[in-house]
Amino acid sequence: MATLHSAPRFTVIEGLKDTLATALGDHLVEAHEEHGELLLTVKRSSVEDALRILRDNHEYQQLMEIAGVDYPGRAERFEVVYMLLSVTRNSRIMVKCTAAEDTPVPTATTLWPNAGWLEREVFDMYGVLFAGNTDLRRILTDYGFEGHPFRKDFPLTGYTELRYSEDLKRVVYEPVKLAQDLRQFDFMSPWEGADYVLPGDEKAATPPVAEPKTTEKPADTGAGAKTDAKAADKVADAPAAKDGGKDAPAPEPTETRPARAKRAGKTSGTKAATEPKVKKAPAKKPAAKKPAAKRKPAAKKDEK
Question: Assign residue 86 a region: left if phi > 0, alpha if psi is -120 to 50, beta otherwise?
């Protein structure tokens, strides 16, 4: 059975589970395939070493995401999940470890710089601590916010929000007002539906049509005899009628572009390779100066 997944298509490598399990050794707790993906559970204290082995020895170069999961009934209620991508092998795997509220997880910022932002988000939403992260601050919630919104036991009411008031021209604190009714979740039953009928649900109670209506006679159309007769007339100037009922051939191309001459030089991005060569016109020689005509001396007047 094919697995439908919203993530991009990736290569399933045969024997990858055994290869990575052997490489991780004592760092590995469990390895199994789920929904067509390989999931590796490692020890919390050695998660940094396990990620380094996967990055350096098995070509998982990119850290795509760090996500958190909350299971309130467990002793270590949180799971930190790392999504890794191998660009060279087109392979994706997930690595996860467990943590409690007071058990820090080693930071991955020593391996990937973008882990700093991702760890801040998990810390803000779940409260998971990351040992070694030098900038572990909230990243999504307001200043002075208390609690962690993605925890399953986070209350839906009773907190204040911070906003800028255009009327008072200053920052104000106000009780959180929920804009819509929220469905309740008791950790045991699925999501409960609304008590009122949602728009469009009234159509579900309408019984299906037993016999579809057809227009076998002109009287069934409701348009009238004159309209039916007019609709039966053929269009005299239709293109198909002019061509004898045959489809018109494809139009001729409107432009013929000559093939571009092969560019000389290497495509290294240099000016000589990317700019066309312009032939310089030969320099004109300066015209030779004609010798100045000698002036004849004026005739002397006879002395009286």
Answer: beta
Q: How confident is the model at residue 265 (pLDDT cuts 50, 70, 90)?
A: low
CA atoms 74, 76, 77, 80: torsion sign: negative
Q: In the chain, where do the E strands start and end?
A: 28-34, 37-42, 62-70, 78-86, 91-99, 105-106, 130-131, 160-165, 170-175
Q: What mean pLDDT do residues 55-74 have?
A: 94
pLDDT of residue 63: 96
User: Which pLDDT score is estimated for 188?
Assistant: 47
DSSP 227-270: HHHHHHSPPTT-HHHHTTTPPPPPPPPS--PPPPPPPPS--SS-
What lies within 8 Å, CB to CB, of 270 at 6+ separation is none
Would you list the DSSP string of 45-56? GGHHHHHHHHHH
- The mean pLDDT of 108-124, rounded to a whole number, is 95
Q: How many CB atoms lie within 10 A of CB 161?
A: 13
Report residue 104 CA to chain centroid gap.
Answer: 31
With b for 16 or more beta-carbon neighbours within 10 A and e for fewer, the 91-129 pattern comes to bbbbbbbbbeeeebbbbbbeebeebbebbbbbbbbbbbb
3-state SS of the chain: helix, strand, coil percent to 5? Answer: 20, 20, 60
β-pair partners for 163: 172
What are the residues whose beta carbons fall under 8 Å from the beta carbon of 133, sequence distance 6 or more?
Answer: 107, 109, 116, 119, 120, 123
Q: Which residue has the tokens 């004592």?
A: 26
Residue 24: predicted pLDDT: 95
Task: Please state whether beta strands 62-70 and 78-86 pair in parallel, antiparallel, or not at all (unpaired).
Answer: antiparallel
CB 55 within 8 A of CB 79: no
Backbone angles phi, psi at 155, to 5 degrees: -70, 150
For 133, other C-beta atoms within 10 Å of its C-beta total 20
d(CA 163, CA 73): 35
